[in-house]
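Page 47, continued from p. 46.
Same chain as before, 188 aa.
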Amino acid sequence: MGYQDALSLAKQKLAQLCPETVCENCSAQYEGGEYFLPWLNSKRAVSTASDAYQILWLHYLTANGVKEPIGHLMAYREMAPALFYEPKFIQRAIKPLVHYFAKCPGKLVETSIKLGGRETGFGSASATINVLPYLPLTFIIWEGDEELSPEGNILFDQSAKSWFVPEDLAMLSSFAVYELINAAKRNV
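Result:
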């Protein structure tokens, strides 16, 4: 299934739901026939986003997942049956995270805080950000040294499984990492 098919199906599913219920379920806003989502400390119109973002956000709008974090952090490989997609998750999310932030891990925390996140106590530097209202992601960097290469990871609250399938979580992570990198470059 291509992007257009997935986008069409997601739009059809959303059209069957009452906007007030959707907004109540996922903390979105509905104004003038348009859904707006809080995304990394900003408000984004769903219909003006790229197809990939729209698909992801439409899946969120129609999921009706768990609203309170469970408090149990999980690595992507624990989000079974995600193992077949893990190499793409690493390539699209983890490698860019490490490539940009390993040289200056404090920049991850600084940027995350500016985007509404908070520092956490993992690795050389880490922060948790609600990338969507009920979806916290924890970004972690280990600096490395002369013997070990820098590493990184992204952890999900267990509740993430109620919002997205593993492929969507990989896409969400990638989008969030690139938005973090761009915000760090702009010194937001």
